[in-house]
Design a protein that fits this description.
Helices cover 43% and strands 31% of the residues. It is built from 3 helices and 3 strands, in the order αββααβ.
């Protein structure tokens, strides 16, 4: 699932200038995407449509794998 998220965010941002931290508990994966503040608008999208679409894609993958998933976007330090 991390590879899918990496592919999607990399395609939106256009480079590899972001980090993905993953934590897992039993059957749940939590991803924290750390990006440069200048790319927030691209990743979040107008009205949050882009991040909602990314979450929906990962939820489909998580359902197939019988897992839960959560994605958060934060500022890279």
């Amino acid at each position: 699932m991390r590879d899918l998220l990496d592919f999607l965010i990399g395609g939106i941002v256009g480079n590899k200038d972001f980090e993905i931290e993953e934590s897992q508990e039993a059957d749940r994966s939590d991803f924290e995407v750390k990006i440069d503040p200048s790319f927030f608008g691209l990743v979040i999208g107008k009205g949050g449509k882009t991040i909602k679409a990314i979450r929906n894609l990962l939820k489909v993958r998580a359902t197939i794998e019988k897992k839960g998933v959560n994605i958060s976007v934060t500022e890279k330090e």
